[in-house]
Amino acid sequence: MKNHHVLLLAYAAQGHLNPSLHLAKRIIAAGGRVTFATTVYGLRRIKSLPSIDGLSYASFSDGFDDGYRPKESSTSANISDFRTVSRQSINDLIQTLSDEGRPVSFLIYNIVLPWAGSLAAAMSIPSAFLCTHSATVFAIYYHCFNTQNGVYVRNKDCDEKVNEPPSLIEIEGLPPFSRQELPSFLLPSDPYHSLVSTFEEHIRVLEEDPNPCILLNTFDALEQDSIKGIRFNGARLFAIGPLRQSASPDNKNPTPADKLLRCDLYDSSKEYTNWLSSKPDRSVVYVSFGSLATLKKNQMEEIFNGLLSSGRPFLWVIRPPKDGEEGFEETIKDKLKEEEGLIVPWCAQTDVLGHTSVGCFVTHGGWNSTTEGLTSGVPMVVFPQFSDQITNAKMVEEVWGCGIRVRVNEEGCVEREEIRRCVEMVMGETERGATVRMKAEKWRASALAAVGDGGSSEENFEAFIERYLPS
Fold it and tell me: Which CATH number is associated with domain 268-448?
């Protein structure tokens, strides 16, 4: 496939960038060339762009090149502006690449950028949609929005907030999903409900494509029923995940691709590596809520006290505060002893999860974090915040059995005793804990087999290359 030049578009969010960058690396390893493009502001935020043969970088405008976004930036009008600006910018990028003697022969786009698929069709460029959510979440979107029998309720004559999902969604082979277990964007009460039109557009673009191609960041054994629930006519679905870097706890001599795939937003510190190495095997609780979620101070205090009362050492990633704000770690530094816990602003998550001392992962349940927990075999306590995290939490507990969901009180807060209970449940000597740890190890082995030689994901990737990017 040496003559193929792939333009890979990713929106500038950690959950989109990391799997997209890993896919770029795999396409290059298969012999192709890739131009990886994200937003102007997003590309500027990536600290280092190592040189890898076959990989180049570009950017497109989303209308917020300086990074500033007004609070109302998620409204329908602003989403329409984003669509218009980014579509024209991507069109200009494709033309520029062609003028430079690097015409795009294939385009890959991911979530939030459905118009890139219709643009590719208009320019006679074959394309694929890279789903960076779980197959389950995408199956729910399909179930809601497909034009044949979609179940999302619309009322065109009233305010758009009347639009809502049914009280129950059923997908063959899976437990039913109540309204409270669906991706939060689907609910009229969600602050980002206007994004529904974007997910609906994804379905429409794929329906209009006579030969839709969908790349799924999952593996067959994990979500086979969900994959079967995605039923576009003539669609080719390739489960090629998990798209992640391999864990390397010692972090010796990382390759340029490893550095790229980390997409570091903060400088890495080895303080936490030394601290982890001082702890017994499977004794540490690792806590991280991703790159977007912001917890209220009272909720962080409940988590902190719950972790302390568990009596287990913990490593907690807390992003640096904004300028002029006091960080949470400053408020509790006098209460925290080194042997009890360590708070850091950033860490290489796959390295941490692969460390022998880590025995539990308290996570928001974003798809990248979920697959990293699965692949590392670390049982999870899932504390979802919004978006697809709510659905992922249900799957972790009820279907995959490798973790449990936290319970919130009437005010929507998870109390300290609940944090302690959940940690003890997955790490303690109980029948439930033993089952969760056994399931976690089972999925670790299954995920590694899928991406290994002769594994399902490896074979699916090779089938994708052979069909769409042949030599």
Answer: 3.40.50.2000
